[in-house]
Amino acid sequence: MRKLFKQARQYARAYGACIIFIDELEVVGKQRVFMDAFGGSSESNSTLNQLLVEMDGLHDDAAHIVVMGAMNAREDVLDPALLRPGRFDRTITIGRPNLAERKDIFEHYAKKIQLDPAVDMARLARKAVYKTPAEIENILKEAALISVRNRRDMVNYKDLSEAIERIELGVAHRLSMTQKERETTAYHEAGHLLMVYLTHPTNDVFKASIVQRGGILGVVHSIPREELYTSDGHTLRAHIRVALGGYAAEKLKYGVTSNGVSSDFENAMQIAHTMIWSYGMGGFVGDFTVIPHHQLSESLKEKLNMETNNLLQSCIKEVEETLRREMHILDRFAQELVKRDELDYDEIVSIFQEYGKPPKSIPLPAVRTEVPA
Fold first, then answer.
1. Each residue of 297-333: pLDDT tens digit?
2. Which is catalytic among the residues 54, 142, 162, 189?
3. What secondary structure does DSSP assign to 150-202, as a single string?
4. DSSP letter (8 states) at residue 329
5. How far apart are CA 9 and CA 13, in angstroms?
6. Any catalytic annotation for residue 189?
7. Is residue 220 within 8 Å of 343, Cβ to Cβ?
């Protein structure tokens, strides 16, 4: 550390200024431990202490030196001494890119591969909600590998879509299932699909599949149409309805359900429990999870659990009413999945449009109006 700052001073004197950039700052800057299990101090303390001494020494130096650090961890992992005035006393938080920025990032990294000119970058950016620049670059690299495996010279939209699915959902494995299992899985996923497309206020369906990925027999890939940082009660109820869609579809079609609903139930009950116990979205206001469990009366816990169950019952009733009303569309999507295994966004929208149900509007990327300097 001393050698680094000595060299920085030499550069600053020679060139007028110098910038020291420390990546992964939390490695050397994490909070000090003054006594470990063996009675001694941590070795990392010495490195941090040296860094603090060298940074303090910059005040008495005529050289112009700026010390910058970067990390992905939360700021509170750093030792408080590092954040005092004269040290790392300025914080810049860089968030994930928005829709227009993702489009620009896709266009930037796309220059490094042979990309089909027909690929719509705006559409691709909408499918990559919450993705970081590194994740976007990884998508394009994975798409290029898929294109090479398929002996194509150019990366097309299908390659990019498959790359996103491979990264998020895992590699596809085609199991040898019985026809009954395929049909049950198809109805299960069709139930999820209909509840997203018809009832969800913020999400869209970009993929429905009955091909095994990551140990699950089927999946409906649903993501928000735009960046959202909070969820209201309507959105949370929609999440519950979507989670229960597979169970309701199996029950309506066969009269019985399979053990494939377990993870859906876990998801639905977790959301309902949080809404009632933590978010005050029931008859009681407050976050009851912060109160020690033994301090809550049994009657209050019973009432909170009853409200959670009533919320789930209300949601499953809405789901069953919707699927029963749209049973002809549910049958159609189940048949299509059995026949084709997978349905992409365009195919899903096309089928819904046959029944007079157009897609929800999706905002286009903002148009930049800045004048270049």
1. 999 999 999 999 999 999 999 999 999 999 999 999 9
2. 189
3. TT-SSB-HHHHHHHHHHHHH--EE-----HHHHHHHHHHHHHHHHHHHHH-SS
4. H
5. 6
6. yes
7. no
